[in-house]
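Q: I have 397 residues here and want to know how they pack in 3D. Can you give me a structure?
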Amino acid sequence: MNAKDATPTSANAASARWAVAAAFFMNGFMTGSWAPQIPLLVTRLGISEFVLGLLILVFGIGALTAMPFSGYLMTKRGSRPVVIGFAWVLVFSLLLVALAPNVWLTALTMYIFGATAGAMDVAMNANAVAVEKRLSRAIMSSSHGFWSLGGFVGGGLGGIAIQQFGHLPHAMFATVVAAAITAFALRYLIEDKPVAHEHRHFRMPRQAAIYLVGLMALFSMIPEGAVLDWAALYLKQELGADIATAGFAFAAFSGIMALMRFLGDGVRNRFGAVNTLRVSALVAAAGMLAAGLAPNPWIAIAAFAMCGLGVANMVPIAFSAAGNQPGVVPNIGMSVVTTMGYSGILVAPSAIGFVAGHTGFAPIFVTLSGLLVVVSVMAGLARHADFRAVAQTAPAE
């Protein structure tokens, strides 16, 4: 890598901004495409909700075991090759799940799917922090907006495609779309330098603040994981929706979340990270509560959309705070917080599935609104997400 590659021009950084947006979109698209496949997995494999919960747990375990490894790889190689490498595996992961003929092979493919999605997620967030520093402006919320837009497209079109053509043609279509994005866009990702010093081993940070930010990310993402993995089944089983309507639960959540995330950087710059996070958490809590109390599918869909409006800027703010914590190497801080946060979106839903088998999903959504209220109380932890704080605390490059 020559000096020009290591320190990109403004034009290169601008191209890298759209490349990282494409990475977020592709990751969100694959995740959103998975959501409408979930209800069919029960009937296709002839399994119970308990077994489905175990499969979702395997997905989460895959992600959580791969996320720290992704952080380690970035200390050696930087984020760009890590994003691209895991993206190419993710391209084929949903198709592998769709082709799996039994529970055991499905578990294996779910592990691969979760591991590659999680590892890519850590690396693309670290790459977004690098682009923020090179451009001298915040892009994290809008980058996550592209993830939500991908989820909206994947979830919204996925339910319709599965109902019209079946789960396997849908998975093949998603694979082609993801491959095209990876091949044509991700090559423009920014080159950031590895940050590990010679003769130093990878180790977890000692600063307590980074783990408190991780806890805040965890409480922000448990509700998001609940909507991703269980909202469609909730609408179908408890509110009587058909499969196409059920697919709109996560699509509405992601669509509104995407719209708000595209506005989020400006909102955060105007009102500050702490105030934005505090109000956003309360809005999300109100939406989650309304979803749990909804009398019919369309009111539930509207409530999930309201929850998406609030959740939109919570996770980007937490991740920006993670990448800019004083005294913590950015890639390592990002790895810690993304691992903790994504345990909420990846592992917690399996526990939700176990509990729902006895209580139903409505009481769970009501309960989850309380976690979002806790995030509102913890909002002061996000002060380092403000870009002016980044300028003061970020290490020189």
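Q: Anything worth noting?
A: Residues 103-135 form the longest helix (33 residues). The two ends are 16 Å apart (CA to CA).
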